[in-house]
Amino acid sequence: MNNILQEMTSKSLSEAMLDFSEKVPVQCRSGYFEAMVDKWGYDEVIGGLAEKYWFNVDEITRVMKDVDRYNKPLDSHKTPKTIVTYYRNITNGGAQRVVTMLCNIWSSMTDEQGNKKYNVILVTDNGPEEDEYELNADVKREYIPSYKVEKREYLKRMKAINDILDRNNVDVFISNMFTQHCTWWDMLTVKSHPSRPAFVLHVHNFTCLPYGLQGCEADSLQYIYGLCDGIVTLSLTDEIYTRVYNKKTKFINNPLTFNVSDIKVSCYSPNKIVWVARIDDIKRPLDLIPVMKLVTEEMPYVKLTVVGKGKSELEAELRKLIKENHLEKNMECVGFTMDVGRYYSDASLFISTSFSEGYPMTFYEAQAYGLPVVCYDMPWLEVEEAGEGIVSVPQQDYVFMARTIVDILKDRDRNIRLGNDSREHVEKLERMDIGETWADFFEGIYGDEDYFANELSADTYRDKLKILITHLTGYQQQAKYDIKNHRSRELELAFSDKKDIYDKLQQAYAEKSEINAKLKQTYEEKSEINAKLQQTYAEKSELNEKLQQTYAEKSELNEKLQQTYAEKSEINAKLKQAYEDKTERGERIKELEAELAAIRGSVGYKLMKGVRLVPGNAKKHDK
Predict the structure, then answer these.
(1) In terms of Cα–Cα distance, which of 202, 201, 206, 175 is closest to 359?
(2) pLDDT averaged over the chain?
């Protein structure tokens, strides 16, 4: 053992978990688990295990069942006082209704001194919600993350559960969800809490059913059953099955959700039938179509009222089939209602098409209204075994069910006689004290093992065992059939997808060819453009050469112009000088003319034609 633990210290958590699940000997599992917890912490270990085994719980349950911390005995001296019960919600469903009723019963119980016997806490997923069943005011509500959490996200749920246990000093924690992945981890959380409450599993259906469910690790249930501190079943058949794994198992009837004495027997309106259930695959509502087609062939005026809601796509399919089979006048879907009594009180017969039931409260409701019940064979049900007001037919035998319905409706005396049997049966159930039965169970799991002693006759045991073996085998065969069909559907879908892909590829190839043609045309146009561009480049080069020559000529002209400008400037300077000289000469001439005029004026000179005067000589001179 020490060598194993020493080896573990050098490993990562992932490697250690793998060793824990596959290599560690049975006698070392508990020590190895605690060593992992010491090294990495409990949350990290559970988070890692949930991450790795969430969808393969069966692989880890067989190992963790041997961990000592989950096998600690309860304190036999403790008297249970605080009861926690968990279900995902308390709306629209039989199990939801029962959980609500039990909370109300427990919270109303008192001890011999008249003191409150139990503190009751109802835990649901993120709530509250609309249309919840009514709870007593003194039932405390708590909420935790949804059961649909996966893998490491479970740590949030674990923290919320531990918080509830920390604050409320819980003695008993009851889980009402026996086929969900979270149940195993919830049990570990509760059983490892320091206050060590009892973990109880309340099984709301036939315990063999999980063997027919895809995605449910039915084989892991044996380890869950084995680790529970107590199990409550809904039939003696289920008690015999689960007792194989846990001796602290007890069959307890569900409480009735009504007072029989407050209900008046139906008026048995002729040809009226009622079907009440959640619209779900396991209730097989679509079976109503072939049954009603056969019934209406013989009794055209029969009217079936379908009460309930559930899967929207299944509801839509049911309505569609009603229309396609022209049953609109014979079938009416009214959805969910809290006032379902008005449909019972007007009917002559109640029918059920359920594949499986745990404790069908709708059967007992129908019986309270004095209605006969026609249903499929579910021999583990106590109500069917009693046979009072119940007529069962083989599963999905539409002809037999239709024939039974017609026979009862046509024979009013038999209809009423069966109805009276139904009423008497439910009146006997009402006289049972369900609260005290549960109180005995709570005390029993804390030490009174005699409470769980159950002596059955050999015949009874043999009959129940036959039911279990038959249905266990049948469910496994059904599961194989469903898996095979599922795979066939997957292949069909794959083939369909493949054909779609082929068609898309063909379309893509055609589009590609078209694109290639366009690309070719574009390439040719591009080549033509390139040729034009080449010509343009040549022309551009020629123009560039001409421009260069023009630039050279322009430069030469500019030089000549510069020279011309210089010469012009010189000429202009000379012209300016000449102009200035001319102006100066003009002014000089004017001065001289002025002087000459002055001279002429001063000597009285006259110039006459042909005579020249000589100064100082006034003598005439001939030429």
Answers:
(1) 206
(2) 87
Beta pairing class for 373-376 and 349-351: parallel
Note whether 322 and 331 are within 8 A (CB).
yes
Confidence of residue 47 (pLDDT cuts 50, 70, 90): very high
Output the six-digit token pair for 491: 């292949």
d(CA 74, CA 472): 32
Confidence (pLDDT) at 349? 97
DSSP, res 559: H
pLDDT of residue 350: 98
Instruction: Report CA 107 to chain centroid distance, whole Å.
Output: 35
Distance CA 264, CA 365 (A): 12
With 50 as the cut, is the pLDDT of residue 455 above it? yes
- Residue 316 burial (10 A CB sphere; 0-12, 13-18, 19+): exposed
pLDDT(450) > 60: yes
Q: What is the pLDDT at residue 491?
A: 47
CB–CB of 202/232 below 8 Å?
yes
Give the three-class secondary structure for 126. Answer: coil
Q: Using the predicted structure, report yes or no on whether residue 460 has a pLDDT greater than 90.
A: no
Location of structure tokens 């343009």? 536
In this predicted structure, the answer to whether residue 516 has a pLDDT above a threshold of 90 is: no
pLDDT at 163: 97
Do residues 464 and 382 touch, judged by C-beta distance below 8 A?
Answer: no
Residue 197 preceded by cis peptide, ω within 30:
no
For residue 132, the SS3 value is strand
> Are residues 86 and 173 in contact, defined by beta-carbon separation less than 8 angstroms?
yes
Contact between 248 and 508 under an 8 Å Cβ cutoff? The reply is no
Contacts of 551 (CB under 8 A, 6+ apart): none
Global pTM value: 0.72
The answer to whether the beta carbons of residues 139 and 121 sit under 8 Å apart is yes
C-alpha triplet 553, 557, 563: angle, nearest 5°: 150
Residue position matching structure tokens 């926690």:
84
Does residue 147 contact residue 177 with C-beta atoms inside 8 Å? yes
pLDDT of residue 498: 60
At residue 610, the 3 state secondary structure works out as coil
Residue type, 440: D
pLDDT of 613 over the 50 cut: no
> 3-state DSSP call for residue 68?
helix
Q: Shortest CA distance to 208 belongs to which of 216, 197, 200?
A: 216
